Input
Amino acid sequence: MPKYLLESEESERLLFRKLQPSDFEECLPFYHDPRSTQYWEGLPSDSEEACKVQFDRVFERYDNDLGGMNALTLKNSGQLVGICGLLVQIVDGVEELEIGYSILPKFWLQGYAFEAAQKCKHFAFQEGFSESLISIIHVDNVPSQKVALKNGMFLDKTTTYKDNPVHIFRVNQG
Output
């Protein structure tokens, strides 16, 4: 199993598993909704191409032990809710472990991002992956910032990441 994946882990309402190529169609609505990507510059404007880029990156991460997004499915129905995971990132020249999350628009405002992010935090600290975790969030993405704050993170700094102005939220173990 690739390092940092939460494969076969679960939270109260969610099951975590590896993302599969067959999940592509179910993930597309994220890219069809302009609110999902409105904060991030540099993504392809075509929703299918943007989704393909995301999938390629997920599988590249799996292959190179750089963490990766897990598919999140509802325990009661198996329906895909979104993706969340632990990602090895380089921020300002420093390797960090990030909690990343993207929830499909029809599941927004139901607590799934927080539930998944919290599980990632507990799993990473339990497994001893890192003394601290970050979330890289565009300075204008208030909903994702609220998830990070609810997950016990604090605003550590503001910087530029992949040509985007971002806040780095951090949580330390302990």
Observations:
- The mean pLDDT is 92.
- The longest helix spans residues 47-63.
- DSSP finds five helices and seven strands in the chain.
